[in-house]
Design brief:
Helix content: 10-25%
Strand content: over 45%
Radius of gyration: 17 Å
Structural class: alpha+beta
Strand order of the largest sheet: 1-2-3-4-5-6-7-8
Oligomer: single chain
CATH class: Mainly Beta
CATH architecture: Beta Barrel
Shape: globular
Largest sheet: 8 strands, antiparallel, barrel
CATH topology: Lipocalin
Number of domains: 1
Length: about 110
C-alpha cells in the first residue's frame, strides 16, 4: 500500500510539473518573403519563456520573452549568424501572432 501511494504521489508531481509550461509550434516568414522559419515557443507559468526557430536558409535563432500583460509579450532573439533583434506578440494562451526584426529586417510569425 505504501509503495502504491508513493507511485501515485510521484505521478501527481510529474503531471503538475509538466503543467507548468506549454510548448507550441511556431511558423513565420521575413516580411519580404525571402526566408521562412519553423520552431517552437515554450511559455512558463511565471510569465517568461523561450522561442527557438530554424530558418529555410539554415540559420537558427533563440530568444527569451516575458509577458508584459496577460495577453502581450516581448523578447529578444540572437541568431547563429550574429544578428539579433526584438519581437513582440499577442496571445490567447494557446495561439497568437507576432512581429519583430532580425538584423534590421522585419518578420511576422504565428504560434499555436
Amino acid at each position: 500500500m505504501k509503495m502504491k501511494m508513493k507511485s501515485v504521489g510521484l505521478l501527481a508531481f510529474t503531471v503538475l510539473l509538466n503543467a507548468c509550461s506549454l510548448t507550441l509550434p511556431v511558423n513565420g516568414q521575413m516580411s519580404d518573403g525571402t526566408e521562412t522559419f519553423t520552431g517552437s515557443a515554450t511559455g512558463e507559468l511565471d510569465g517568461g519563456g523561450k522561442l527557438s526557430l530554424i530558418s529555410s536558409s539554415g540559420r537558427s535563432c533563440e530568444g527569451t520573452f516575458v509577458y508584459v500583460t496577460s495577453r502581450n509579450g516581448q523578447g529578444i532573439f540572437t541568431c547563429s549568424d550574429g544578428q539579433s533583434g526584438p519581437f513582440e506578440f499577442v496571445s490567447t494562451g494557446t495561439r497568437g501572432t507576432g512581429t519583430g526584426r532580425i538584423g534590421g529586417s522585419a518578420f511576422t510569425f504565428t504560434f499555436g
